[in-house]
Amino acid sequence: MILPIYGYGQPVLKKVAQDISSDYPALDELIVNMWETMYNAHGVGLAGPQVGLALRIFLIDTEQVKEDEKLDLGFKKVFLNAEILEEEGTAWSYEEGCLSIPDIRGEVERLPTIKIRYQDEHFTWFEETYSGLNARVIQHEYDHIEGVLFTEKLKPLKKRLIKKKLELIRTGQIVSDYKMRFASRVV
After folding, report:
1. Strand 76-88 to 57-61 pairing
2. Residue 22: burial class (beta carbons within 10 Å; 0-12, 13-18, 19+)
3. Is the CB of residue 141 less than 8 Å from the CB of residue 58?
4. Is the pTM here over 0.70, yes or no?
5. Domains identified in the chain and CATH numbers
6. Within 10 A of 126 (CB to CB), how many other CB atoms are there?
7. pLDDT tens per residue across span 19-31
């Protein structure tokens, strides 16, 4: 089932998400729905807050853009209760976008290598290192479960330039290719 993606201005996008436990009801169904929602919106990642749940869950599929982005290795995974343990390297800029903030993109600086600890959908713990675009996608989705949006990491001039567009998203005065839920709807 395709879920509505919560747009900029929804309070859940600014909350630090809570851990998800193994007794969470219908977790398998939620994961299936999140994959379907992400693919329907042509995304490479989706986090719990983006579907209205302040839970520490996000999923990523960089396999689908491996060739376009010239990645040596893409991956498709579910991350539960993630914690970034380390970030290192020289910061690099890359243009990011977000399903919760349609039609807005901007250069975001991030460190290129991360070490992350997380559980998979079977609640098995992993500690892994990622770099390059794979690390960036994880950092972007991880920010969602920490209540941070990529627009907060933009340079001041870019923030001023997108202010009106953000207000249009917040008030639902945009047309999206996928189902969305807005903070308020202007009629």
Report:
1. antiparallel
2. exposed
3. yes
4. yes
5. 5-181 (3.90.45.10)
6. 12
7. 999 999 999 999 9
Question: Is 107:155 a contact under the CB 8 Å cutoff?
Answer: yes
Coil, strand or helix at 70: coil
pLDDT at residue 69, rounded to an integer:
63
Candidates 29, 141, 146, 152; catalytic one = 141
pLDDT in tens, 58-99: 999 998 776 666 666 789 999 999 999 999 999 999 999 999
CA–CA gap between residue 166 and residue 106 (Å, rounded): 13
Tokens linked to 115: 């070490």
141 is catalytic: yes
SS3 167: helix
